[in-house]
Amino acid sequence: MAVLPAERDLRRVIGDADGAGDRExxxxxxxxxxxxxxxxVLLRTYDERSLVYHRQGRIGTYAxxxxxxxxxxxxxxxxxxxxxxxxxxxxxxxxxxxxxxPATVLSWWRGHPAGWWSPEDYNVASICxxxxxxxxxxxxxxxxxxxxxxxxxxxxxxxxxxxSEGSFHEGANLAAVTGAPxxxxxxxxxxxxxxxxxxxxxxxxxxxxxxxxxxxxxxxxGTDVLAVYEAAREAVxxxxxxxxxxxxxxxxxxxAPHATADDPRAYIDLxxxxxxxxxxxVGRFEGYLRRAGILxxxxxQSIRTEAADAMRAxxxxxxxxxxxxxxxxxxxxxxxxxxxxxxxxxxxxxxxxGESG
Amino acid sequence: MAELSIVxxxxxxxxxxxxxxxxxxxxGEDVGRAGGVFRAxxxxxxxFGPNRCFDTxxxxxxxxxxxxxxxxxxxxxxxxxxYDAFSYPCLDQLITHVGRYRWRTGGKMSFPLVxxxxxxxxxxxxxxxxxxxxxxxxxxxxxxxxxxxxxxDAKGILAAAIRDPDPVVVLEPKLHYRTLKGEVxxxxxxxxxxxxxxxxKGDDVTLVAYGSMVPLCEQAADVxxxxxxxxxxxxxxxxxxxxxxxxxxxKTGRVVIVQEAPRVCGFAAELAAILAEKxxxxxxxxxxxxxxxxxxxxxxQIEDSxxxxxxxxxxxxxxxxxx
Lengths: 357, 323
Known about the structure:
The complex is a heterodimer.
Chain A: H1 30-55, H2 69-76, E1 84-86, H3 102-109, H4 119-122, H5 135-147, E2 154-159, H6 166-178, E3 182-188, E4 191-192, E5 195-196, H7 197-200, H8 209-213, E6 217-221, H9 225-240, E7 246-251, H10 270-278, H11 281-291, H12 297-320, H13 340-352
Helix pairs in contact in A: 1-2, 1-11, 1-12, 2-9, 3-12, 5-6
Chain B: E1 2-5, H1 6-20, E2 24-28, H2 44-48, E3 53-55, H3 60-72, E4 76-80, H4 91-98, H5 101-104, E5 114-119, H6 134-138, E6 144-146, H7 151-163, E7 168-173, E8 181-184, E9 197-200, E10 205-209, H8 213-223, E11 229-233, E12 236-238, H9 242-252, E13 255-258, H10 267-278, E14 288-290, H11 303-306, H12 310-321
Parallel strand pairs in B: 2-3, 2-4, 4-5, 5-7, 6-7, 10-11, 10-13, 13-14
Antiparallel strand pairs in B: 1-8, 6-12, 9-11
Helix pairs in contact in B: 1-7, 3-4, 8-12, 9-10
């Protein structure tokens, strides 16, 4: 199958940005639209509360994903539960959309072992901290599922900076060569910490990179949850039909710091940030739902309250986790650990218990 | 029993293990159509199909990275790195993911993959076809490392690595791939990881080695006619058979460690440290090392001077006996 040049125009459904008017997405009824909204509010609440918890010293350094909720929710709602998600740190709480308790993700950011979930429980891989090295994992999983004749596909989330990495290239190429049922979801928020997109690539769009791999590349408004959903649904259908991977460039703007340890005032255009905040993704979708007569104040309030309650329960549960025992230092690295682990632990316990050596 | 070379024994192990377990798959550069540049995977694609002996794109990090995902999908991938020094791009995946992923899941998911490669010099090859990179692998938590030196062990250790629930790196001595032949058991043959092999019994001095340095130590032992030399083939660098090392040191009281890799922080240094910590009262002299030098592996016209030689090993033994 010939691969067409990557799309340049941003796909949109929510009609507030270009005056085109709202569109409807086939197959999405009122209940599904509200489900999308509930998911976005849950992620937004998670993110905003996490910033507060960080300032209160209740979680450690935290990578903010404010204004990225639309692309996370849009993609996950296009998947089935047996499809796999490979998150970067920017999607740390994406498991919430698969029923993972907020306490688990909060524990991860608290550096507590309760945060190290089993990927198989949610079909959500562990959070990838280095850049782009999980792209080959997602390609391998998707390829492996295909080889086994299973119908599951996978999605890898990564940022604009990740497309400069060798691992992205090797993973994307391998997925294309093997026809792996994979969605490469590039969150182009236009900043890699302080490096702007124009310093990251000379390509006109990131979607153009897809051509070189022989896969379709599409561009969507990454703050339009419905546009992301629609593009992801198409990519999933291609994957299930055996047509291989799709690259989706979801364009957004990082309207918050990279992480709690970052102060973007040194490099970012603050006026632009204020503009972007005015069209942030949760508010845009709320506007769409209100214009369609689906959402009203009471319902919006109850959805927000539900999310806030979940977070309160989450931080309480995370803080109630018993302290991690030092034996965990030596557990889980191997199925069959070297003999030295046992003697090292014994010695450590003796010394921590006040004995010498 | 059949008389096989090391590379034939590796190939035999693959045929047995792919037949035994339908989730085992081989992947790497030129492993399928060509059967591997050393023919270690010859015949597998024909017998088991192109998906179970898969020719990958040229991408060492992509090979190992996708192997992580294949494990998550229920496969047991065996990744070939075409040459020792070509494996360096895969160190990124090995260090950041392969060695950590099981731990990261709280022990709930396992990654039973194998990375194997021909290693070592002395073969008159171009640059970066000659390295001994074992230390990089041994130093990485969460992975096991084995280096066979005989055809029988090449088969049995690869089989053990494939069956092992943890990630295992196997380095195969390419210097002896075809020159060293030996009896290899037919059918299923497993040499457990973590067990050293006493290659030769002796009383006066122990030569400790692995891989291509084991035959060299045996030659040195032959030359040292007046000395009773013990040769200990470590076989598995991690987990290490410490008991075998300490038992031999206790018996002879003199230890020379021979390693082809550069000296600083090489595996010989680890073995020497263990002896210093646990065998000091058994030793009658210092633990000596015969190693490669701390230089880039040289042009092949002078590589023989870089490699540990019989002369350098015997000189170290004489020095220790004279201590």
